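Before the break, one more example. Copy the sequence into your notebook; we will annotate it together after we see the structure.
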Amino acid sequence: MNPLVSIITPMYNNQVVINKTIKSVINQTYSNWELLLVDDSSSDNTFEIAKQEASKDPRIRVFKNNKNEGAAVARNFGTKRAKGDFIAFLDADDLWLPNKLELQLEALKKADVCFSSYEWIDTKGNPLNIKVNALESLTYKKLLKANYIGNLTGIYNAKKLGKIFTKNLKKRQDWLLWLEAIKRSGKPAVGLQDTLAYYRNSEDSLSSNKVKLIKHNYKAYRKGLGFSMIKSCFYMILFLYEHLIVKRRRIKKIS
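Here is what the structure looks like once it is written out:
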């Protein structure tokens, strides 16, 4: 029996790229999936384009928020309505390679959480020749120091772990979700070394703004995980070392 995979995609003013993102799901070698497209009150034609794609494929469902509430609310909205045994995430400007789900479902026979390596592309879809290599095994303790899971590559066993709803923070809510998934599992997440997704990197992304990154990371410790101020500051020291020195070794230039 082939398990159903629910793919949740928040959308906001993505009319230029949403067709390619949807196509990367349709092209999966594993076909038993549902795609939940949640439009966060876009002001362009994103919703209309998504509805048109959904009319061609019954596996695609489209929803629309009445007001813009952010990615966390949109992901939780999709999660609530997901019917799958497994839940995965794909932002509206990112792409999957065709064998992503097939390879990850095989890995998930021995684990509850799986992620993979991914590569960067620019806003026009051109390769930036940068690969973020996944750790082969990722524990809760390691993930607590820095986010090692690219959200576009993550998938978890919802049938076993239950649905996971993330905190309503502006940023880093995806990191909190994967922390909860590994915590519930009690086992390390499995990281596949193959590139299974393309991340669209923009100049205003959080990873390119270190000051905002530090601010949002502290808020994740303090409000997201409920750490005390002292404990949050302690983990921020660990985070800075892990993110700026250790994690950077996972990012490689490729030809």
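The radius of gyration is 17 Å. The chain has a mean pLDDT of 94. Try to locate both features in your own notes.
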